[in-house]
DNA sequence: TACATAATTGAAAGCGCTTTGGATGCCACT
DNA sequence: AGTGGCATCCAAAGCGCTTTCAATTATGTA
């Protein structure tokens, strides 16, 4: 069933039926009723590809999903998607997801953009000096970046959390508790949030005349194994750190396993603060020793970005171009005063 | 840059350029080279919407993502998606994800199908007597179901794991260890896998003349909280079960927390077997007491389903319509002989 | 040399929708 | 009666691609 058939059925022109369907004013209310009725009976749905071709819009947000054989799936990605979806469903938008090798993201994003399949783009996993920014700017398609790109002029639409502030505050808390030996368990070095979090730690330490030793910094994928490995490494250092900052509760999961295996007590021998993306699976309060965290909901960010993206496509009012969300610092049992030596 | 412009640039007809691009044989090799060269230089990409409209194919797989405010995101979904993506990226396919309220899945699936945006459908979260099957059959669009629908004629293309066999085997193992008081911590009652797993347990018990008490069965969303609650309930029963079967490592996570909180020892006071979807975040061997599991990789299932779907769309050879994967039973430390009373 | 055959290329007709630029009829108003 | 304005409706022209059908040229054969 297509427009033509439907209009023949009704004895109307395609024009009128189309207008009736799309809420144009120049169609008789009685006629519109008749059309709507027929739609219900026949179950007619406009062909989106045709609509897209004719209008240039198709109610969809495009995004690139990094994937590859052996590339571990990322809970953060799923959680963010849930947020996007929650908002999208309200506006009858859908997503077009282009899976791409992590090394091929720029090209994949470009393919997606010029495929004509999407109205707007969402971009994540930002890096320092991210090459995608220049490409996006040249595209004349709305987009919102999740995160920022360290080293690039912040003149693009983004939503980010204050990573530097979060880790600055967390470090200050640990300093106040008397800790002096710190370690940072971070995400991959090239990612923007990792850079900023590191800076936050470093500047808080610097205020006390402390520095973060190279050996007390790990950059790795945010998996629990990597957390385990990194922590094992830290624990073997001659000057074992007593305060750990951790970029994700996923990393913390492994890190804590290492602490337990070493027979140490979290919150006493070792204090740890992790960043909490509010993943349903990893509630900091559910850890055997509840975790002190810097918190910001990834899902809420997804909802907000979807709002902005969809709003822009629908030309529904202006949105702020840049948003920086503060994180909360929530103290639980994984942090305590520095142990007396 | 579109086909018309490109062909004018080359002094060729759109026909020839189109054929050159799509690998048709009736075009001079020299001409093809010239076209390919021009594509490289101009960065031309065909408009997918137009391609779709003209051919009816667009290289995309559609799926419905259940979501709603407050609806917790599902790690299983993300992991499966990673599998789909891994295969899709090899064939330059993408996904169209339609977010939908969990109560609205049938309608959402239909909308997706007739939107003309997708070539094939993937369907998951199957229920007993699933109403989507009839709809899918009427659709004349390829689809593959992940799971099955208990109570419906199995005459549709599916990939499922042997849920009944898995839980039958797991139960047998526990029986051999002398356990007689069982509890089953299951997924939502209406879901197909939950039905079959329950049946597996019941039939293994029946062979020994045992039955599964109503109070020893929980049906809930597969979250760690629910696991905690269910286990707390089980532990308060007058005849406390000693053997627990658990539909997911996510549930097990909470369940084990409850066991620990009750001061009981896993693998001694309580034996537990969980089904392991091979989620990167929840490795059974990484639990403080490594988990005995029935194992089947969700991601591998995703890869396989994408293969079948894409293969069908591309008309690349016949695929088996029905696949039933056996699970592995892997014994670790969370199971032990029944404690002597 | 003449003619069948194969190799290349093009013109034009869609795919299903939106939208521009009229038509048409009806009314009030002068 | 003549005119302008309004409410409705429609024919047809795209959107950018594929594909059918036909034309043209090159090649081979008798």
TrEMBL record, chains A, B:
Signal peptide bounds: none
Name of the protein in its database record: LacI family DNA-binding transcriptional regulator
Superkingdom of the source species: Bacteria
Organism, scientific name: Rhizobium ruizarguesonis
InterPro entries membership: HTH_LacI (IPR000843), Lambda_DNA-bd_dom_sf (IPR010982), Peripla_BP/Lac1_sug-bd_dom (IPR001761), Peripla_BP_I (IPR028082)
Coiled-coil ranges (or none): none
GO molecular function: DNA-binding transcription factor activity; transcription cis-regulatory region binding
A Pfam family recorded for this sequence: LacI
Domain HTH lacI-type, residue spans: 1-55
Keywords, in A-Z order: DNA-binding, Transcription, Transcription regulation
Gene3D superfamilies, per the entry: 3.40.50.2300, lambda repressor-like DNA-binding domains
PANTHER family reported for this sequence: HTH-TYPE TRANSCRIPTIONAL REGULATOR GALS, LACI-RELATED TRANSCRIPTIONAL REPRESSOR
């Amino acid at each position: 069933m297509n427009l033509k058939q439907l209009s023949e059925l009704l004895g109307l022109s395609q024009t009128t039926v189309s207008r009736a369907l799309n809420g144009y004013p120049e169609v008789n209310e009685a006629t519109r009723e008749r059309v709507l009725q027929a739609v219900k009976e026949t179950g007619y749905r406009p062909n989106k590809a045709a609509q897209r071709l004719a209008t240039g819009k198709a109610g969809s947000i495009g995004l690139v999903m990094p994937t590859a054989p052996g590339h571990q799936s990322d809970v953060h990605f799923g959680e963010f998607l849930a947020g996007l979806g929650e908002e999208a469903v309200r506006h009858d938008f859908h997503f077009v997801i282009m899976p791409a090798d992590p090394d091929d993201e720029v090209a994949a994003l470009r393919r997606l953009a010029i495929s004509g399949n999407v109205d707007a783009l969402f971009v994540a996993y930002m890096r320092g000096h991210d090459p995608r920014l220049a490409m996006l700017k040249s595209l004349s398609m709305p987009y919102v970046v999740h995160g920022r790109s360290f080293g690039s002029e912040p003149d693009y639409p983004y939503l980010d959390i204050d990573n530097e502030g979060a880790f600055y505050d967390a470090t200050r808390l640990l300093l106040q508790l008397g800790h002096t030996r710190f370690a940072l368990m971070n995400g991959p070095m090239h990612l923007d949030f990792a850079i900023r979090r590191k800076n936050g730690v470093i500047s808080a330490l610097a205020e006390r005349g402390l520095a973060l030793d190279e050996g007390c910094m790990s950059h790795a994928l945010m998996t629990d194994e990597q957390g385990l490995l990194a922590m094992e490494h830290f624990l073997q250092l001659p000057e074992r750190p007593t305060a750990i900052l951790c970029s994700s509760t996923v990393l913390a999961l492994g890190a804590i396993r290492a602490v337990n295996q070493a027979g140490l007590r979290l919150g006493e021998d070792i204090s740890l603060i992790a960043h909490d993306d509010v993943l349903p699976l990893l509630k900091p309060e559910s850890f055997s020793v509840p975790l002190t965290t810097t918190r910001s909901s990834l899902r809420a960010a997804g909802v907000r970005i979807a709002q902005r993206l969809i709003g822009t496509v629908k030309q529904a009012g202006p949105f702020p171009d840049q948003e920086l969300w503060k994180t909360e610092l929530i103290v639980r049992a994984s942090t305590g005063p520095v142990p007396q030596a």
